[in-house]
């Protein structure tokens, strides 16, 4: 079954829901971005006004900024999927939600998917910008958060170009691969392999779409042992394949 990302923005009233087995209240001005499979029992109040968008998880890479900022922003959203906005930040995100909904209904079919994805890219940028402003001063007091932070910093530094094996990162972090898997899943909702792939695929996507390199040259730059291995990896992680792969 295809995984989907649920986006909720409460513009009035409130909404009770269960996320990952726990009850939460989405108040007016609050946004939630999370895996749809983790959300259940959405119960809006009588005066609730709720904007809702569903995006296939496989399209996430196409929507994210082509930089480590996109992946780290997504990680932070997993850590804090519900956040409240005020003033201009809220107005901007509400406009983004309404814009995507309008594009999905009124854009000609031939251009609809690309138009919706373009609107979602803007929505993610605005959501991540507001989210970062809310949580940028939060201190990670738990060892798990520290391990995850250092893991992401290694990926930000480009380690994924040479190393795509979880065992390598676990060794550098002085933990077992099993423990890194547990920490990543608890903190972000995703495995370490997922984050390694995200960084790798985003760079491949960027190099193929915006660079002047051939698939063979990109494969060499990313240290794949063969073009066929590169092709399988890229096609497995990208929502839309490049003509050269």
- What is the CA-based Rg, rounded? 19 Å
Order of helices and strands: EEEEEEHHEHHHHHHHH
The class by helix and strand makeup works out as alpha+beta
Q: What's the overall geometry? A: globular
- Give the proportion of residues in helices: 40-55%
* Residue share in β-strands: 15-25%
Count all strands and give the number: 7
- Count of individual helical segments: 10
Going across the major beta sheet, what is the strand order?
A: 6-1-4-7
Oligomer: single chain
* Biggest beta sheet attributes: 4 strands, antiparallel
Average pLDDT metric: 82
Poorly predicted ranges: 137-141, 239-245
Query: How far is the first residue's CA from the last residue's CA?
Result: 26 Å
Task: Describe the protein.
It is a single chain. This protein has 245 residues and is of the alpha+beta class. Helices cover 54% and strands 18% of the residues. The strands form 2 sheets. The protein has a 4-stranded antiparallel β-sheet, with helices on one face. The chain starts with a strand and ends in an 8-residue tail after the last helix.
Write the layout of secondary structure elements.
Blueprint: E1 4-12, E2 14-19, E3 22-27, E4 30-35, E5 39-44, E6 49-56, H1 60-63, H2 68-79, E7 82-84, H3 87-106, H4 109-135, H5 143-156, H6 166-172, H7 177-188, H8 192-210, H9 215-221, H10 227-237
Antiparallel strand pairs: 1-4, 1-6, 2-3, 2-5, 4-7
